[in-house]
Hints:
Layout: H1 2-5, H2 15-29, H3 38-59, H4 65-75, H5 80-103, H6 112-125, H7 132-145, H8 163-178, H9 188-198, H10 205-214, H11 218-230, H12 234-245, H13 249-258, H14 264-267, H15 279-286
Helix pairs in contact: 3-4, 3-5, 3-8, 5-13, 7-10, 8-9, 10-12, 11-12, 12-13
Amino acid sequence: MAEFFSSPGIDPPSPTLSARLRELADYLARPMAERLTEEQRALSLGIARRLVIEAAKSLDTEIDTGLLWSEWLDAGLPTASRLAAACFARAEEHRWRDHSALRTIAPAALSDEEGDTVDVAVTDVATKDAPEADRAYLALQIADRRRFDGHGHPRIALADVDPELLRALLRDIAAWRTRRPESDAAAPDDLVRRALDRRDAPQGLDRAATEYYAALDAQAAAQEAATAISRHDWLALIALAAAASRRSYSNMALALLSAEPAALPTLLAPLRLDHAALAPLEASLSALPGRTGEGAR
């Protein structure tokens, strides 16, 4: 095919045609290989867009984020290889938790009296007199809420971005900015340094997970993890497993989502869970369409 297009008198293919031919060639080379679903592509791309825009605004509030994203879509994201793992992990975790929530039977509506009781309980948890583990779990939930935008779409909060990934992303954005005709003379490295210096340090998910686990002894952590599995509280489970294994939340989420059922006991061994307690977790993971595990369907 390449010889055909390079023959004299034949116009070379357009960039779009070339890209589609390369994609088809890759597909024909491995037609049975599992590939991303449209949902996985859309979620990951949306997460990448929101991260790029938020990082750009932290660099310069006046930056044209619409133009930046449009040009990067056309030319390709310069940090694509670094962004892929982070965005895919966040997208798959969101798919899992969202799919699980849809499968879980919603609780019965509370009466006004019951609702008042719940409001009082939530307020009590937020006070300094609440048990340390309850306060740590509330902090974990707050950190998790920062991982959604105002419309409820999943994102990666800047506090949760790997420092090296964030620095590389900021450098690429700063380099794009300095090439704009209207930009000032600030050097990209100076822009990145100032952005990192100005950065607030809100409690990220990894820190919240570590503090949640630290608030429990080994027996309590095992009980909390088992309860989280039975309630399909995957946020709590991932946080406890990550802290117990000294891994990042994102890394542990992706490890669970790509694990075979037989590997789950080993993966969660630091929590000392009874194997029977893992059944709801195995069922939830196996029900997720397009899961990454080799045995997933």
